[in-house]
Design brief:
Strand content: 25-35%
Order of helices and strands: HHHHHEEEEEEEEEEEEEEEEEEEEEEE
Radius of gyration: 24 Å
CATH class of the largest domain: Mainly Beta
Shape: globular
Structural class: mainly beta
Oligomer: single chain
Distance between the termini: 60 Å
Number of helices: 5
């Protein structure tokens, strides 16, 4: 499997290079040294496996890199972003943990691109081109087995604050299904900020607790006084989360032997955050599912480590917020997705084992709201009952943060991007209890 498809299988799609400026710069063509890398032989394979899943016509990246003609005008931009480590985007500190979906280029790949640009970005012999990758139209993960979506083109206004909207989508499945991979496709990316999809079973499911959350971290109740009536309010029962869409994160492919259960008769609930952009428009969002061919060995579940009881003071440049959870069952932790809004600047996760040993699971020293990554452990972590997971997020509410909506106000938990969150999505499986050795028969 090439690296780009491997990144898809790991659950986060590589979305290469963001354009610098509004138009591609033009270059003269100096003679290339005889031993210089060429697009056809050395550079195209790197772009094909790392970038073109998103950098192709109709996808989320601002330009295509599928051909020499596409890529050549952006050569200097490509070199700059790759040299700085900004593209492909990856924000975890390599000193802590190894991750299945690590998108970084190797040093050799970076050097090839730098030498190619220094030589004038030559095309080389087109006969050297590897086969161009093929993609399912409209889907980063490949063609889904099932596509489910909103039953309406929902009107999104041109302006104003839009409360979260909720749309119910019946599955009509007559038996339990298991999701091997999923991808949420925003119907209108210009106004869809994020989507979380829940699956509500016909009857509430009672399961033993897996996590014990520390006291004092609850989300404060909203003041609904004088708020307009929401035309698509939250249902009384949401169900379990099965996936979502957020900036830089569009879906997930689960590893062999694991999948998410979708109970028979479930209704999907799409929680959608729309952001008005000055033009009245509509949206019809969908979710694509690839279904496991058989019941998996391990059922993946999702939970969230949240601290909603915080206040970030106006002007604070490095405000810390902590959250902690204790395991009350043995689990395997597959991935963690940190989430804040525009003031979030860095994250760190510590685990304390029952024997008192502590280590750092994940460090994100430069969190980027535009690239929310589900960090998937290369080796899933088997964590015993009694283990504590401690999350710490730091926020920049100062004027030095160019993304800060307003450094003059205290900030609390809230749904809108000018408010804040302290939220980590956890993907885990519950480990079966250890087998009890049978007693040896007594001699007579």
């Amino acid at each position: 499997m090439n690296k780009s498809l491997f990144a898809v299988a790991a659950g986060v799609w590589v979305c290469g290079l963001v354009a610098v400026g509004h138009s591609a710069p033009q270059y003269a063509k100096p003679p290339a040294p005889a031993d210089a890398p060429t697009y056809s032989k050395e550079v195209a394979p790197i772009l094909y496996k790392n970038c073109t899943n998103c950098h192709r016509p109709g996808e989320i990246a601002p330009m295509s890199l599928l051909t020499f003609k596409d890529a050549r005008p952006w050569a200097t931009s490509i070199r700059e972003r790759v040299s700085l480590g900004e593209m492909p985007p990856w924000h975890a500190d390599p000193a802590h943990g190894q991750f299945l979906n690590d998108r970084r280029l190797s040093d050799a790949e970076k050097e090839t691109i730098v030498k190619w640009v220094a030589a004038g970005a030559p095309e080389g012999n087109p006969a050297d081109l590897p086969p161009q990758p093929t993609y399912a139209e409209g889907w980063l993960m490949g063609q889904p087995d099932v596509v489910l979506g909103m039953g309406e083109d929902y009107p999104v206004p041109a302006s104003g604050t839009i409360e979260y909207k909720y749309f119910e989508v019946p599955t009509n499945f007559t038996e339990d299904k298991y999701i091997q991979s999923m991808e949420v496709r925003a119907g209108n990316r210009a106004v869809v900020h994020h989507v979380i999809v829940f699956a509500r079973a016909p009857q509430p499911e009672q399961r033993a607790a897996v996590f014990k959350f520390a006291d004092g971290m609850g989300i404060p109740k909203k003041d609904e006084t004088d708020k307009p009536v929401n035309d698509r309010p939250a249902p009384q029962r949401m169900g379990a989360s099965i996936g979502g869409f957020a900036p830089g994160q569009f879906g997930r492919v689960y590893q062999p032997g694991t999948a998410v259960r979708l109970p028979a008769g479930s209704v999907l609930v799409f929680q959608i955050h729309y952001t008005a952009n000055g033009t009245a428009t509509t949206d019809r969002t969908t979710i694509g599912l690839k279904l496991a061919k058989e019941k998996p060995k391990d059922e993946v579940r999702m939970s969230a480590l949240i601290n909603g009881a915080f206040t970030i003071p106006a002007g604070a440049g490095d405000h810390r917020v902590d959250a902690e959870v204790t395991l009350v069952q043995d689990v395997t932790l597959w991935s963690m997705l940190p989430h804040t809004h525009l003031r979030g600047k860095r994250w760190e996760y510590q685990v304390t084992y029952p024997d008192g040993k502590t280590e750092t699971l994940l460090s994100v020293p430069k969190y980027d709201f535009n690239w929310q990554t589900d960090y998937i452990f290369k080796e899933p972590l088997k964590l015993a009952k009694g283990t504590k997971i401690h999350a710490t997020a730091w926020y920049d509410n100062s004027p030095n943060n160019p993304s800060n909506p307003n450094p003059k106000v205290d900030v609390k938990w809230g749904d809108q991007t000018w408010e804040e969150m302290m939220f980590t999505s956890l993907n885990y499986t519950v480990n079966p209890p250890a087998a009890t050795p049978s007693a040896e028969p007594k001699e007579r």
